[in-house]
Amino acid sequence: PSSLWSPLAAPHEGHVVTETQLAALLDSALNNGPHNVLLLLQDKLSVEDFTAYGGVFGNKPDSAFPNLENALAAAPSSLVLPSVDWFAADAVPAFLKAKLGIAPLHVAQNTLQQLKLNASLPALLLVRLPYTTGTGFDSPLMAPKEVLTSNDEILGQVLSALQSEDIPYTAILTALRPSRVARDVSDLAPEKVGRQLLQKDETLSPLQYPKTGTPQMLFWASNFSVAFNDTWHELTNLTFGNNTSVNVDGSKSAPDASLLEMKYANVGGSPLTVRFHIRNTFYNVSARHWFNLYLVQLIVGGRPPVNFTATQITAPSNYSFSCTRVSSYPASSEALLVPSGGSQQWKVLMTEFQ
């Protein structure tokens, strides 16, 4: 079938799928799809592993998941759930056993060629992906990427054996627990999903756009300063707090690209505009959108913009990016803001940037 789920089946980013919701999704798949079911069960896995080791930042050949990616691309119907409740994931084998009315058949690599499936009779095949406990993420014997690459090779062998049978099947990959645990420290954003801009105890509140209503962009730093020819101008008190005069009306928020524009009437005797240019891109491997601050601009008076290329300032769009220091100096490979053109005379400093 072209799809086993409705277009609204995929949960929004930051949502944790409950046991009841997962059961409904599995019900839909088994009611409308093949009853030959392959369950690939891994001890630990998180969606961040796909982002970290999936080669999404231009190094696709280095991906740890080539077989999984090819399977998802070739599947007539697929659904990726970025976050599933631990108890719900742990109950998947029991749910499938009850739904299909059969006990799972534990399949090892050396028995793959002996599989004989029947399209009219349901089968529940259970493959446990090894090397993830004791010798995997918890042990220095194997690096995480080596663990994931090894498991992907096993997945490829299993899928190849099933495809040689020429029998339709439903495949499920899940884990008993996450390899990474994200702590929700948000108290600012609606619905309190994911890791948002961290709440600070300081008296200066974050800059919010729009200034009233639901925030679409939040920005905070303990120190926000710019310098020209080593003369520094601090913008912290002009930017953060409840009684600032900074103008953000020129900002724009859109699904694919956003602009945070901060206008200051008088900084060192001239009007100053600071612009943050942000992209929002969907990555299939991690099944979520990531934002990327890629350009910072300073505009003094009517002069041409002074540009700083931003590097490595990126995170899932429902999370926040936090860094102790984001600056353009000293000029080195560690600087997250790289000056271009005539911007070498200018400097930007943001500490405890979020």
Kindly summarize this structure in a few lines:
The protein has 354 residues and is of the alpha+beta class. It has helices at 19-32, 47-53, 66-74, 86-90, 92-100, 144-165, 236-239, and strands at residues 36-44, 105-106, 123-129, 170-177, 207-209, 217-219, 223-228, 231-234, 257-267, 270-283, 288-300, 306-310, 314-316, 323-327, 337-339, 346-353.
Mean pLDDT: 80
Helix segment tally? 7
Strand runs, count: 16
From the alpha-carbon coordinates, what is the Rg to the nearest angstrom?
25 Å
SSE order in H/E notation? HEHHHHEEHEEEEEHEEEEEEEE
Parts with pLDDT < 50 across at least 5 consecutive residues: 133-140, 182-202
CA-CA gap between termini: 44 Å
Give the structural class: alpha+beta
Approximately how much beta-strand content do the residues carry?
Answer: 25-35%
What is the domain total for the residues? 2
Helix percent reads 10-25%
Shape: elongated
Largest sheet: 6 strands, antiparallel
Organism: Gekko japonicus
Domain V-type proton ATPase subunit S1 luminal: 216-354
Protein name: V-type proton ATPase subunit S1
Provide keyphrases for this structure:
elongated, 7 helices, alpha+beta, 354 residues, four-stranded parallel sheet, 20% helix
Tell me what the structure shows.
The chain folds into two domains: 19-177, no CATH class; 190-353, no CATH class. The protein contains seven helices and 16 strands. The longest helix has 22 residues, at 144-165. The strands form four sheets. Strands 9, 10, 11, 12, 13 and 15 form a six-stranded antiparallel β-sheet that branches. Strands 2-3-1-4 form a four-stranded parallel β-sheet, sandwiched between helices. A four-stranded antiparallel β-sheet has the order 8-7-16-14. Helix 1 runs parallel beside helix 5 (92-100). It is an alpha+beta fold and 354 residues long.
